[in-house]
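Materials and Methods. Structural model of Glutaryl-CoA dehydrogenase. The 388-residue sequence of Glutaryl-CoA dehydrogenase from Phytohabitans rumicis was retrieved and submitted for structure prediction as follows.
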Amino acid sequence: MRALPLDLIDVDSLHTDEERQIRAVVRKVVDDLVRPHVATWYEEGRVPARDLALEFGKLGLLGMHLTGYGCAGASAVAYGLACLELEAGDSGVRSLVSVQGSLAMYAIWKFGSPEQKSRWLPPMATGEAVGCFGLTEPDHGSDPASMKTRARKAGTDWVLSGTKMWITNAPIADVAVIWARTDEKVRGFVVPMESPGVTAREIRHKMSLRASSTGEVVLDDVRLPADAALPAAEGLKGPLSCLTEARHGIAWGALGAARECLHAALDYAVSREQFGRPIAGFQLTQAKLADMAVELQKGYLLALHLGRLADAGSLRPEQVSVGKLNNVREALAIARECRTILGANGISAEYPILRHANNLESVLTYEGTSEIHQLVIGQKLTGLAAFS
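The predicted structure was written out as tokens:
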């Protein structure tokens, strides 16, 4: 009798009924809205992101782990399960939800004024307004402290100038949370994308995350009122805390891509015959499948542990780095190994494996490269910073 990888150690028994119900709802919406179309979206390099945002908003998936302002107030584990199911569909689709909820909405929810929260969070929770998060720059990714985007005072107003790069949702966004250097420290700003001087350009010719809307945001002397600044965010601690929030979802989401690849490889291996029998009956194939199933389960247990810590209010940034580093790295290794089981068919869009592998190359890099997370963990182990 065949067992699916996560059935081997019965991880389902570790969840509450409510968590399983949320997972089932998200899995169904992915089955209905994403899986039938995602190969075409990927091939054509487009995605109906605003339509998806509205559908996800109806289900309460946008900012689902936040409270108030129309947000669902779900647990961190429930949010993680949603990320896993969304990324089983496609990493780009999960990125849409992660950037909306864990970066743009979270920044406003955590650091915004009551007026900023009331204006933006309710329509963002329903998907009527889409947000993006502007931290990365063309020359400054892993080193945000060196950002060139500037905010200067002009009377009581702020004037922003600079460029942000590789910004998910930017081409379709209604609002951006932009991080800029002032004369004193880094500050966050809520920037309506319709503001004069704001330009968003879609980044084309991507070989990864093609079912995701990614752009460059140019700020050309954008004048904003004083109340555009996030009042409770001063210094790099603000944006970095947002990244920690998003990385937790990524540690779960990458497992969804890995699970989807492993399921596809299992189905293929038991039906594909060579030398007179299914390739699943050969020792080398079973060794690959067994090793991948073990790594998937280990990653799942790690993500679940981090989720429980988050729900208890005790999750630390370096612990999130462990989850992001391990789970994305292992998910990518699983995707690549699964491709070998399918042979030449592994590169066909008829199967999801190479699409997931290509996407995971981006997931490996964004929200902190593997090297950055290794240094975060190394600093915690040694007490010595090795970032410069």
